[in-house]
TrEMBL record:
Belongs to the uroporphyrinogen decarboxylase family. The record marks 76 as: Transition state stabilizer. This is Uroporphyrinogen decarboxylase. InterPro entries: UROD/MetE-like_sf, Uroporphyrinogen_deCO2ase_HemE, Uroporphyrinogen_deCOase. GO terms for cellular component: cytosol. It comes from the Bacteria. PANTHER family: METHYLTETRAHYDROFOLATE:HOMOCYSTEINE METHYLTRANSFERASE RELATED, UROPORPHYRINOGEN DECARBOXYLASE. Residues 21-30, 139-155 form the Uroporphyrinogen decarboxylase (URO-D) domain. Keywords: Cytoplasm, Decarboxylase, Lyase, Porphyrin biosynthesis.
Amino acid sequence: MESHERAVMRVLAGEKLERPPIWMMRQAGRYLPEYRAERAKAPNFLDFCYNTDLATEVTLQPIRRYGFDAAILFSDIFVVPDALGYPVNFEEGRGPVLEPLSIEQVEKLDQARTMEHLAPVIATVERLRAELPTETTLLGFCGAPWTVACYSVAGHTTQDQVAARIGSYKDPALLTAFIDQLVEASITYLVAQLDGGADALQIFDTWAGVLDDIGFEQWSVGPTRKIVDGVKAQRPNAKIIGFPKASAARLKRYVEGTGVDAVGLDWTVPAEVAQEIQKIVPVQGNMDPMRLVAGGRALETGIDHALEVLGNGPHIFNLGHGVVPQTPPEHVAEMVKRVKGL
Ligand code: CP3
């Protein structure tokens, strides 16, 4: 079967399907007991990401269990700064911690070592394409430079990314220097994922929504455009989904400014905004992941609402952000059944 026949790829090409294909952000994760069992084999999270056997296995788990229409490569957005030589640490119970940004750190970054460092991730992509069912789309991804940089300016996750925003105003040259490095490495990495067998790509900009108008253009749209252009200059047929979280009012600007082929909607995007955007590009989303935790009527209502609002155009069913660890796995099975009309 040709890759353009995969349901997710058909939607990305602009087709409206009778039933939308479905996958879930963070579908390989701690809500699954079989994920936790594999995860226990590699105490360091980055080592886990770089272990081709383990990463392949956990990527396949949700496909086997639920038959999702797309698999997303198991990795993390921080493998890119790690590959460049930027100090990244995952602390138990605290999440990722990056060394605070400084010109000394940026000057030490080395593009030449990036792909050698990321070779195990590309090997995972190759293994996945060989092992996945032919009808399953394989998605590669990277973090948007602003979102990656947020964790380095602040050193860790902070509410509203106050430190990153102050840093962007006080020393835009430093942030630009770091982001330029991330852009270059991300282009190389995404092209390698495509060459390894990824069918399409997603760029996660989880923190786009904290920026003011000027910052949104400067730090989210601008660098994302460079990545999209850079990838497409080398692989003109590449399909790229952008996910600028909490940016409902700026989605049109984001889509037109970045050149992405489709856009992920978070759960706060209003129906009328989603439908306007869907006239320009295919959309992905956007049920609140907490409905999936709650289950029952709340889940059914959320699914039906998304299907109704987005059902008249090209739509890939997804959550408005990642599935959370406390989600009961049986709720996910119920969601897939209902979306598929079974
Ligand atoms: O979607 C998938 O299943 C693919 C894998 C994937 C992970 N992270 C695995 C992961 C993807 C696409 C990401 C993206 C990512 N990582 C983003 C952007 C999307 C988003 O969710 O906002 C961001 C901001 C990160 C950074 C990150 N990684 C944080 C803040 C954390 C800690 C919080 C948490 O959920 O634990 C991680 C760790 C991480 N990345 C886990 C997984 C499954 C959990 C780590 C573990 O198993 O111990």
